[in-house]
Amino acid sequence: MTTVIERPGFLRSATGGLPRPFWVLFAGTLVNRLGTMVEPYIGIYLSQARGMSIAMAGVVMTTFGLGSVLSQPFAGWLTDHFGRRVTLTGGMIATAVTFVILGYTTSVPGLIIGMLALGVFVDSYRPASQALVADLVSPEDRPRAFGLLFWAVNLGFSIAMVTGGWLVSVGFTTLFWVDAVTCLIFGVLVWRAIPETRPERSEATPGSFRDVLRDRVMVAFFLVSLTYAFVYLQAYTTMPLAMTGQGLPAGAYGLAMAVNGLLIVIVQPLTNTWLSRKDPTRVLAVGFTGVGIGLALTAFVSSTLGYAATVAVWTLGEVFTAGVAGTIIAVLAPAHLRGRYSGLHGLAWSGGGLLAPLVGTRLLEAGPQVVWLVVGGMGLVAAAAALALGPAIRRRSAV
């Protein structure tokens, strides 16, 4: 007699009903993020291994940001024009090759060109990945699917941060090779196990970025996302400077941010199914509010424990935002333009990545209270804007 072992009810509700290709994408994303070791340590690599000044390292890293800005619209076009699978696989292979070349490049011009190329390639998978989920997963299951991918990204990145810190002592070249191999594994998994899902194009619906920019709801959502990205990324750009500026050791930032990874890995799977049943714009507004309040509270702390407490507050807000943007884009985008819509959303994050350090550091110079209260206020503005967009997005989802 065969014994059937059923998954507990929680696991069934959290993971059941999603197609096999989605789980391939989930596994590839997790593997890829387990190898994310170069980006967090790139500043240290440039200054220590390549002997650059802080100013020159900043110039080199800025080219990475410029590449990222170019990446998302271009990858969105590739996703719609050539297909999801070829874009994701091609982007991962190009990223792997770039990592290997960068690991052995010593000249400043070579490093600048390499970092620009890395910025273009490293996140080019995002529009294709979002379009794949929208193509593969039914509308009612998309919030849960996007939430699971968010969890995979954060679990992998949390482990990579710890592992990368240990491997740095072995040598920076090892980090480049680990990142390259995990990118290659992701690309091969997608090519071998995920079918192409791009809808057939026709002369009646060729599609272009002009169509995306004519969508006033999507453009408004882009502006909301840009505002939130600027707010959220202060935790990764301005916060470490604020902490060291208050006399805390460099390691204090890592200890405080460990709370972020721990809470996401534990809390997000427990809330994913429940949140997926709620209206996405209201969930997003609650998340933006939590992140804004958490960052505003940073203005009133000066110890490692205090910073860790504020990280816990805004992380709970971040949990609410998990995967919601992907769900909204899947509602707004026609099937043949899903790549371009996702690319425009990715551009919001790339733009936020450029603006966050430029503006955040200027606000920090005016005072730590100034930067965090302004940033917190902008988080509340983003929340209000998300609520204002809710009726228009709900009308689109009902069509």
From TrEMBL:
Major location category of this protein: membrane
Transmembrane segments: 52-70, 82-102, 146-168, 174-194, 215-233, 253-271, 283-305, 311-332, 344-364, 370-393
Taxonomic superkingdom: Bacteria
Subcellular location: Cell membrane
A Pfam family hit: MFS_1
Keyword tags: Cell membrane, Membrane, Transmembrane, Transmembrane helix, Transport
Entry-linked CDD domains: MFS_MdtH_MDR_like (cd17329)
GO cellular component: plasma membrane
GO molecular function list: transmembrane transporter activity
Membrane topology, as annotated: Multi-pass membrane protein
Domain Major facilitator superfamily (MFS) profile, chain residue ranges per copy: 21-394
Protein name: MFS transporter
Organism expressing this protein natively: Planotetraspora thailandica
